[in-house]
Specification:
By secondary structure, this protein is mainly alpha-helical. About 80% of the residues lie in helices and about 0% in strands.
């Protein structure tokens, strides 16, 4: 938003935010479905993967970069 204000280019801001919001909601929904899966192996595998990513610094940083820059 700050860049768009500085460049006096607010025309596409709403559309860009809507597209980004849709991407975030789709990502969240995929995660919710995996965590609430009826398949216990899938559910536990996802939980384990999240714990590993949270504890291994390079993976954690890569995950944060994905969320911040995507």
């Amino acid at each position: 938003l700050a860049r768009r204000i500085a460049e006096d280019d607010l025309a596409g801001y709403s559309a860009a935010r809507h597209a980004e919001g849709a991407r975030v909601i789709a990502f969240s929904e995929r995660g919710r479905r995996m965590l609430q899966s009826r398949n216990p192996l899938r559910r536990e595998t996802v939980k384990l993967a999240l714990r590993i990513v949270g504890r291994v610094d390079p993976l954690s940083r890569a995950g944060m970069r994905y969320f911040v820059n995507a």
